[in-house]
Specification:
Length: 420
Amino acid sequence: MAATVSPSSLTLSARLIASLRAAWTARQTPWWIVVFAAVAFALRKPWALHTPQLYAEDACIFLVQQEQFGFRAVLEPYMGYLHTLPRLIAWFAAATADPAWWPAVYSGSSFAITIALFFRIASPRFDVPGKPVLLLAFAFAAHTGEVPLNITNLQWISAFFMLIQPLLSAPTRLVDRVADFTILLLVGLTGPFSVILLPVYVWAWWRDRRLATFLPLLLVAACAAIQLHFIVQAGPNSAAPGEPFHPLQFFSVIGSRLFIWSFLGPALLAPLSNVVRAVVAVTAFVGLGFWALRDQPRRSQHVLLFLGFFLISAACFFRTRHDTWGTDNLADGDRYFYISRVLLFWFLAWACTSVRRGVAWTATALVIVGFAVHLPAFRYAAPPDFHWADHCDPIRRGVPAKIPILPAGWDVDYPGRPVR
């Protein structure tokens, strides 16, 4: 007897497909897609929320210096620039919660900022196609789990606020203007991205010469000047200053980390030679450039995003100097490739709407494969639980202690709280 499908299930499927199609080109993304993307993002590292622990500089820098300097720690540079958002989160945790809850405040605040970013992307002011893929790329694009849900690497998430600002429509309400100003100020003083992305804001203003693009340019330029002051004081910020440049290794690592791993997974990397990986990198970068610059209705948006993609990629590649690496294990320095990999899926999402059916189908296939190939390793294994709450009493009392934190093998040397 032939199987039958109930009309109700057909109706539900039809409604879901219609909703997804509408969301692809809608100015405002349905809330349930935002929620789904946020849940997927959290499910890659669920233990970071249900069993939160401090990670690396969470404790060694932000917690310790908050204890030493109080709110003044906001003005302390680290790695050559300010980290305003992590500093404010550390200050808020110290001011409102017992030390046992600080890991939860750190991870929860990072997640809350990520959700705020998702709603910013879903906003009707960000009028671009393919928003479901733009949101899901944060969870499904290849990465090692280093970036999400900690304040140490929050700058790699918050940088997207700065990336999309030039693509937003001009604010029409006072609340939008205040939000734009506040976001740019906080993000511009968190990490070096105001310096890196300043040319994007210059180009956005030069393109239309409006007050709506000039005021963000002024604010980003001010933030860039502050961050550049600290960067100059810190000196050269490269992992291998003075080392000769090795172009084959340079492009090979880009091909591996950015393109091949994203769509083939790690297993198929081993048989490929450095030459093949380098050719893939150069071809893909040139292809993206030509695609962004081609004459089409959304050219200005594509150019702005490609410029941001290129500048961030170049700055990260300079910082890591991966051309001096002897081997590439896909894990070391993964945070430096995270933004570029997410943006790669953004370009593909936009290419899915191409009037050229071959381009649209190819882009769609790459998105599906790029998401699906990493599903078997979607959820990262939970690390050892060091039971922070059992070790944090010295912080309550303000006395020196050595406390284990993530990643495994790290400890925070808590120096004690100075008498104020």
